[in-house]
From TrEMBL:
The keyword Transcription regulation does not apply. This is Small ribosomal subunit biogenesis GTPase RsgA. It is found in: Cytoplasm. One of its GO terms (biological process) is ribosomal small subunit biogenesis. It comes from Bittarella massiliensis (ex Durand et al. 2017). NCBIfam families: ribosome small subunit-dependent GTPase A. Belongs to the TRAFAC class YlqF/YawG GTPase family. RsgA subfamily. The keyword Zinc applies. Its main location: cytoplasm. Monomer. Associates with 30S ribosomal subunit, binds 16S rRNA. GO terms for molecular function: GTP binding; GTPase activity; metal ion binding; rRNA binding. Residues 71-215 form the EngC GTPase domain. Zn(2+) binds at residues 244, 249, 251, 257.
Protein backbone atom coordinates (compact mmCIF):
# COMPACT_ATOMS: atom_id res chain seq x y z
CA UNK A 1 0.00 0.00 0.00
CA UNK A 2 1.47 3.42 -0.86
CA UNK A 3 2.60 5.76 1.85
CA UNK A 4 2.13 9.51 1.74
CA UNK A 5 2.15 12.69 3.77
CA UNK A 6 -1.08 14.50 4.64
CA UNK A 7 -0.35 18.09 3.60
CA UNK A 8 -3.79 19.62 3.89
CA UNK A 9 -7.15 18.76 5.46
CA UNK A 10 -10.34 20.48 4.36
CA UNK A 11 -13.98 19.46 4.86
CA UNK A 12 -13.31 15.79 5.43
CA UNK A 13 -10.77 15.47 2.62
CA UNK A 14 -7.16 14.66 3.36
CA UNK A 15 -4.73 15.70 0.68
CA UNK A 16 -2.07 13.02 0.63
CA UNK A 17 1.17 13.71 -1.20
CA UNK A 18 2.95 10.68 -2.54
CA UNK A 19 5.39 10.22 -5.40
CA UNK A 20 5.00 13.80 -6.59
CA UNK A 21 1.20 13.55 -6.82
CA UNK A 22 -1.58 14.64 -4.50
CA UNK A 23 -4.59 12.46 -3.74
CA UNK A 24 -7.77 13.88 -2.20
CA UNK A 25 -8.62 11.06 0.19
CA UNK A 26 -11.43 10.26 2.56
CA UNK A 27 -10.59 8.68 5.87
CA UNK A 28 -11.50 5.06 6.47
CA UNK A 29 -14.86 4.89 8.30
CA UNK A 30 -13.45 2.77 11.13
CA UNK A 31 -11.24 5.67 12.28
CA UNK A 32 -14.25 7.31 13.86
CA UNK A 33 -14.93 4.39 16.19
CA UNK A 34 -11.25 4.18 17.05
CA UNK A 35 -11.16 7.91 17.81
CA UNK A 36 -8.42 8.41 15.27
CA UNK A 37 -8.41 11.74 13.51
CA UNK A 38 -5.84 12.15 10.78
CA UNK A 39 -3.79 15.34 11.09
CA UNK A 40 -1.84 17.43 8.66
CA UNK A 41 1.71 16.16 9.03
CA UNK A 42 0.64 12.54 9.43
CA UNK A 43 2.29 9.85 7.38
CA UNK A 44 -0.49 7.62 6.08
CA UNK A 45 -0.95 4.39 4.21
CA UNK A 46 -3.65 4.87 1.63
CA UNK A 47 -5.46 3.22 -1.28
CA UNK A 48 -5.35 5.49 -4.33
CA UNK A 49 -8.38 5.65 -6.62
CA UNK A 50 -7.69 7.98 -9.52
CA UNK A 51 -7.21 11.48 -8.10
CA UNK A 52 -8.72 10.39 -4.80
CA UNK A 53 -8.49 7.46 -2.45
CA UNK A 54 -8.83 6.34 1.10
CA UNK A 55 -6.59 6.80 4.11
CA UNK A 56 -6.26 3.33 5.64
CA UNK A 57 -3.73 3.74 8.39
CA UNK A 58 -1.97 6.52 10.28
CA UNK A 59 1.65 5.73 11.06
CA UNK A 60 2.97 6.42 14.58
CA UNK A 61 3.46 10.11 15.33
CA UNK A 62 6.57 11.74 16.66
CA UNK A 63 4.47 14.53 18.19
CA UNK A 64 1.17 16.29 17.69
CA UNK A 65 -0.41 19.64 18.51
CA UNK A 66 -4.00 20.62 19.07
CA UNK A 67 -3.97 24.18 17.82
CA UNK A 68 -3.07 24.35 15.08
CA UNK A 69 -3.88 20.68 14.50
CA UNK A 70 -0.66 19.31 13.10
CA UNK A 71 1.65 16.34 13.66
CA UNK A 72 5.29 15.39 13.20
CA UNK A 73 6.87 18.82 13.39
CA UNK A 74 10.67 18.48 13.26
CA UNK A 75 11.59 22.02 14.18
CA UNK A 76 10.22 25.30 15.38
CA UNK A 77 11.76 28.53 14.22
CA UNK A 78 11.27 30.78 17.21
CA UNK A 79 11.25 34.26 15.78
CA UNK A 80 12.51 36.93 18.17
CA UNK A 81 12.68 40.58 17.18
CA UNK A 82 15.54 42.68 18.50
CA UNK A 83 12.92 45.33 19.35
CA UNK A 84 9.22 46.22 18.90
CA UNK A 85 8.13 44.01 20.42
CA UNK A 86 10.99 43.77 22.89
CA UNK A 87 12.22 40.22 23.40
CA UNK A 88 10.85 38.34 26.39
CA UNK A 89 13.41 35.68 27.20
CA UNK A 90 11.28 34.02 29.83
CA UNK A 91 8.50 33.37 27.35
CA UNK A 92 11.04 32.19 24.81
CA UNK A 93 12.61 29.77 27.30
CA UNK A 94 9.22 28.43 28.22
CA UNK A 95 8.42 27.74 24.58
CA UNK A 96 11.82 26.16 24.01
CA UNK A 97 11.17 23.92 26.98
CA UNK A 98 7.87 22.77 25.44
CA UNK A 99 9.55 22.18 22.10
CA UNK A 100 12.23 20.04 23.72
CA UNK A 101 9.56 18.12 25.60
CA UNK A 102 7.69 17.42 22.39
CA UNK A 103 10.79 16.41 20.46
CA UNK A 104 10.81 19.49 18.24
CA UNK A 105 14.21 21.05 17.54
CA UNK A 106 14.22 24.74 18.49
CA UNK A 107 15.92 27.20 16.15
CA UNK A 108 16.25 30.85 17.19
CA UNK A 109 15.68 33.41 14.45
CA UNK A 110 16.53 37.03 15.20
CA UNK A 111 14.73 39.76 13.24
CA UNK A 112 14.64 43.58 13.02
CA UNK A 113 18.42 43.70 13.26
CA UNK A 114 18.29 46.84 11.13
CA UNK A 115 16.67 48.59 14.10
CA UNK A 116 18.72 47.20 16.96
CA UNK A 117 21.45 44.64 17.48
CA UNK A 118 20.76 41.40 19.31
CA UNK A 119 24.25 40.12 20.07
CA UNK A 120 23.48 39.49 23.71
CA UNK A 121 20.53 37.27 22.86
CA UNK A 122 22.48 35.49 20.15
CA UNK A 123 25.29 34.77 22.61
CA UNK A 124 22.92 33.34 25.23
CA UNK A 125 21.28 30.89 22.87
CA UNK A 126 24.44 29.89 21.08
CA UNK A 127 26.03 29.17 24.44
CA UNK A 128 22.98 27.11 25.43
CA UNK A 129 23.42 24.99 22.31
CA UNK A 130 20.79 26.20 19.85
CA UNK A 131 21.16 27.18 16.23
CA UNK A 132 20.82 30.97 16.01
CA UNK A 133 20.02 32.58 12.67
CA UNK A 134 20.15 36.29 11.98
CA UNK A 135 17.72 37.74 9.49
CA UNK A 136 18.65 41.15 8.17
CA UNK A 137 17.02 42.06 4.89
CA UNK A 138 19.61 44.74 4.08
CA UNK A 139 21.75 42.03 2.53
CA UNK A 140 20.99 38.59 1.10
CA UNK A 141 23.26 36.70 3.49
CA UNK A 142 20.41 35.64 5.79
CA UNK A 143 18.82 33.34 3.23
CA UNK A 144 21.32 30.50 2.75
CA UNK A 145 21.69 29.52 6.43
CA UNK A 146 17.93 29.53 6.84
CA UNK A 147 17.38 27.38 3.79
CA UNK A 148 20.05 24.95 4.96
CA UNK A 149 18.22 24.65 8.24
CA UNK A 150 14.86 24.05 6.53
CA UNK A 151 16.23 21.40 4.20
CA UNK A 152 14.68 17.95 4.59
CA UNK A 153 12.66 18.85 7.70
CA UNK A 154 9.08 19.74 8.56
CA UNK A 155 9.29 23.22 10.06
CA UNK A 156 6.92 25.76 11.54
CA UNK A 157 7.41 29.37 12.63
CA UNK A 158 6.43 30.50 16.07
CA UNK A 159 6.59 33.79 17.92
CA UNK A 160 4.80 36.80 19.28
CA UNK A 161 2.59 38.94 17.17
CA UNK A 162 4.60 41.54 15.29
CA UNK A 163 8.04 39.91 15.46
CA UNK A 164 8.07 39.48 11.69
CA UNK A 165 7.07 35.89 11.03
CA UNK A 166 4.85 36.65 8.06
CA UNK A 167 7.40 39.06 6.65
CA UNK A 168 10.03 36.33 6.82
CA UNK A 169 7.80 33.62 5.37
CA UNK A 170 6.95 35.98 2.50
CA UNK A 171 10.61 36.79 1.90
CA UNK A 172 11.33 33.06 1.70
CA UNK A 173 8.62 32.83 -0.96
CA UNK A 174 7.71 29.16 -0.72
CA UNK A 175 4.11 29.70 0.34
CA UNK A 176 1.31 31.99 -0.84
CA UNK A 177 1.74 35.59 0.29
CA UNK A 178 0.54 36.41 3.83
CA UNK A 179 -0.60 39.89 4.80
CA UNK A 180 1.75 41.53 7.24
CA UNK A 181 1.68 44.33 9.74
CA UNK A 182 -1.89 44.09 10.92
CA UNK A 183 -2.80 44.22 14.56
CA UNK A 184 -3.98 40.94 16.01
CA UNK A 185 -7.36 40.85 17.69
CA UNK A 186 -7.93 41.73 21.32
CA UNK A 187 -8.05 38.16 22.55
CA UNK A 188 -4.42 37.81 21.62
CA UNK A 189 -5.15 35.31 18.92
CA UNK A 190 -3.60 36.41 15.68
CA UNK A 191 -5.71 36.82 12.62
CA UNK A 192 -4.21 33.71 11.05
CA UNK A 193 -5.37 31.33 13.72
CA UNK A 194 -8.57 30.33 12.04
CA UNK A 195 -6.76 29.34 8.89
CA UNK A 196 -6.18 25.71 8.14
CA UNK A 197 -2.62 24.63 8.52
CA UNK A 198 -1.03 23.42 5.32
CA UNK A 199 2.37 21.93 4.59
CA UNK A 200 4.16 23.30 1.57
CA UNK A 201 6.91 21.26 -0.04
CA UNK A 202 10.25 23.04 -0.25
CA UNK A 203 12.24 22.92 -3.49
CA UNK A 204 15.28 21.54 -1.67
CA UNK A 205 13.33 18.93 0.33
CA UNK A 206 11.30 19.28 3.49
CA UNK A 207 8.07 21.11 4.25
CA UNK A 208 7.07 24.44 5.67
CA UNK A 209 3.88 24.75 7.68
CA UNK A 210 2.20 27.99 6.67
CA UNK A 211 0.99 28.72 10.10
CA UNK A 212 1.91 31.97 11.72
CA UNK A 213 -0.96 30.80 13.95
CA UNK A 214 1.57 29.01 16.15
CA UNK A 215 1.54 31.87 18.59
CA UNK A 216 3.21 31.77 21.96
CA UNK A 217 -0.07 31.62 23.79
CA UNK A 218 -1.35 28.65 21.88
CA UNK A 219 1.80 26.67 22.25
CA UNK A 220 2.22 26.98 25.96
CA UNK A 221 -1.42 26.19 26.69
CA UNK A 222 -0.98 22.76 25.18
CA UNK A 223 1.50 21.19 27.48
CA UNK A 224 2.19 21.02 31.15
CA UNK A 225 5.65 19.76 31.95
CA UNK A 226 6.07 18.28 35.40
CA UNK A 227 8.97 19.14 37.64
CA UNK A 228 10.79 15.83 37.16
CA UNK A 229 10.92 16.33 33.42
CA UNK A 230 11.59 20.05 33.45
CA UNK A 231 15.41 19.92 33.92
CA UNK A 232 15.73 17.71 30.83
CA UNK A 233 14.05 20.37 28.71
CA UNK A 234 16.97 22.75 29.39
CA UNK A 235 19.61 21.11 27.22
CA UNK A 236 22.62 22.93 28.63
CA UNK A 237 21.70 21.74 32.14
CA UNK A 238 21.50 18.07 31.20
CA UNK A 239 25.25 17.28 31.39
CA UNK A 240 25.26 18.43 35.04
CA UNK A 241 22.12 16.75 36.32
CA UNK A 242 23.90 13.68 37.65
CA UNK A 243 26.57 15.70 39.42
CA UNK A 244 24.54 17.22 42.25
CA UNK A 245 25.33 16.31 45.83
CA UNK A 246 21.78 15.34 46.78
CA UNK A 247 19.34 13.18 44.88
CA UNK A 248 16.12 15.03 44.27
CA UNK A 249 18.02 18.29 43.85
CA UNK A 250 15.71 20.84 42.26
CA UNK A 251 18.70 22.76 40.80
CA UNK A 252 17.25 26.02 42.03
CA UNK A 253 19.07 26.76 45.30
CA UNK A 254 20.56 23.62 46.86
CA UNK A 255 24.00 23.23 48.35
CA UNK A 256 26.25 21.09 46.18
CA UNK A 257 24.14 21.61 43.05
CA UNK A 258 26.23 20.99 39.94
CA UNK A 259 23.88 23.07 37.83
CA UNK A 260 24.28 26.13 40.07
CA UNK A 261 28.04 25.62 39.98
CA UNK A 262 27.89 25.60 36.17
CA UNK A 263 25.90 28.85 36.21
CA UNK A 264 28.51 30.44 38.46
CA UNK A 265 31.30 29.14 36.22
CA UNK A 266 29.66 30.77 33.20
CA UNK A 267 28.80 27.46 31.52
CA UNK A 268 25.04 28.01 31.73
CA UNK A 269 23.62 31.44 30.84
CA UNK A 270 22.12 33.01 34.00
CA UNK A 271 18.96 34.13 32.19
CA UNK A 272 18.30 30.55 31.13
CA UNK A 273 18.68 29.31 34.66
CA UNK A 274 16.40 32.09 35.93
CA UNK A 275 13.75 30.93 33.47
CA UNK A 276 14.21 27.39 34.68
CA UNK A 277 13.71 28.49 38.31
CA UNK A 278 10.57 30.44 37.43
CA UNK A 279 9.12 27.49 35.54
CA UNK A 280 10.05 25.15 38.37
CA UNK A 281 8.28 27.42 40.82
CA UNK A 282 5.16 27.29 38.64
CA UNK A 283 5.01 23.50 38.37
CA UNK A 284 6.56 22.24 41.58
CA UNK A 285 3.25 21.62 43.33
CA UNK A 286 1.47 20.01 40.41
CA UNK A 287 1.06 16.26 40.83
CA UNK A 288 0.80 13.94 37.82
CA UNK A 289 -2.78 12.93 38.70
CA UNK A 290 -3.90 16.56 38.44
CA UNK A 291 -3.26 16.41 34.73
CA UNK A 292 -5.50 13.40 34.14
CA UNK A 293 -8.31 14.15 31.76
CA UNK A 294 -7.36 17.73 31.27
CA UNK A 295 -4.78 20.37 31.71
CA UNK A 296 -4.13 22.57 34.62
CA UNK A 297 -3.58 26.11 33.54
N1 LIG B 1 12.53 47.24 10.47
C1 LIG B 1 12.08 45.99 10.32
N2 LIG B 1 10.75 45.78 10.34
C2 LIG B 1 10.31 44.51 10.19
C3 LIG B 1 11.21 43.42 10.04
N3 LIG B 1 10.47 42.27 9.92
C4 LIG B 1 9.17 42.64 10.01
N4 LIG B 1 9.06 43.99 10.17
C5 LIG B 1 7.81 44.76 10.33
O1 LIG B 1 7.20 44.39 11.55
C6 LIG B 1 5.76 44.40 11.42
C7 LIG B 1 5.18 43.06 11.84
O2 LIG B 1 5.62 42.06 10.92
P1 LIG B 1 4.77 40.76 10.61
O3 LIG B 1 5.56 39.96 9.64
O4 LIG B 1 3.37 41.07 10.25
O5 LIG B 1 4.77 40.05 12.04
P2 LIG B 1 4.13 38.66 12.46
O6 LIG B 1 5.09 38.03 13.38
O7 LIG B 1 3.75 37.85 11.28
O8 LIG B 1 2.86 39.13 13.26
P3 LIG B 1 1.44 38.36 13.46
O9 LIG B 1 0.93 38.01 12.12
O10 LIG B 1 0.59 39.37 14.18
O11 LIG B 1 1.72 37.16 14.31
C8 LIG B 1 5.47 44.76 9.97
O12 LIG B 1 5.19 46.14 9.92
C9 LIG B 1 6.79 44.45 9.26
O13 LIG B 1 6.98 45.26 8.13
C10 LIG B 1 12.62 43.69 10.03
O14 LIG B 1 13.48 42.80 9.91
N5 LIG B 1 12.99 45.00 10.19
ZN1 LIG C 1 21.18 20.39 41.31
Amino acid sequence: MPKGLICKAISGFYYVESGGRTYACRAKGAFRNQHIKPLVGDWALFTPEGEGGRVEEILPRKNSFIRPPVANIDQFFFVVSACSPAPNLFVLDKLISIAEYKGVEPVIVLTKLDMEEADRIAAIYQKAGFPVLRVDYRSSGWRAPLERCLQGKVSAFCGNSGVGKSTLINHLGFTPEIETGEISDKLGRGRHTTRQVELYPLPFGGYLADTPGFSDVQLHRQEQILKDQLPYTFREMVPYLDGCQFTGCSHTCEKGCAVLAAVTAGEIPPSRHESYCALYEAVKDIAPWELEGGKKS
